[in-house]
Amino acid sequence: SGQISTLNLRLNFLIYSIRMLSSMIKEHQVRQSAKKESQETKRKEAVLAASNLTQALVDHLNVGVAQAYLNQKRLDAEAKQLHSSAANFSKQTGQWLNLVETFSSALKELGDVENWAKTIEGDVRTITIALENVYKDSQETQSQ
């Protein structure tokens, strides 16, 4: 009974932990989605800036060389930032994949523990019935 109680406590803790992890994963997915949208907006802005630069160079071939240089410099900085953000996103995605694999493993272990507990419970019932039968037989023998 003590072992089953301890097992139930551990099982409840695992379930709680899994729910918390699931909640954290959902929150992360929402944050990642927002971050991805932000990165997509920045990418579109970078593409638009590059397009604007090209158009300015065509329209004013010999005029505004200094401005084109500044625009290119800004584009380079944005591209570096975008590259850095993409690398961070990739790293975080890898970390979350590892976390999900750990979560999956914990779920499998939880299933194994649950099956073990059911087996133990069945064994305890069998022993209880056997002891009750022995007790009844001894009572009948004593009363005769």
TrEMBL record:
Signal peptide: none annotated. Coiled coil: none annotated. It holds the Pfam family GCN5L1. GO terms for cellular component: BLOC-1 complex. InterPro entries: BLOC1S1. Transmembrane segments: none annotated. It comes from Photinus pyralis. It comes from the Eukaryota. Belongs to the BLOC1S1 family. This is Biogenesis of lysosome-related organelles complex 1 subunit 1. One of its GO terms (biological process) is endosomal transport.
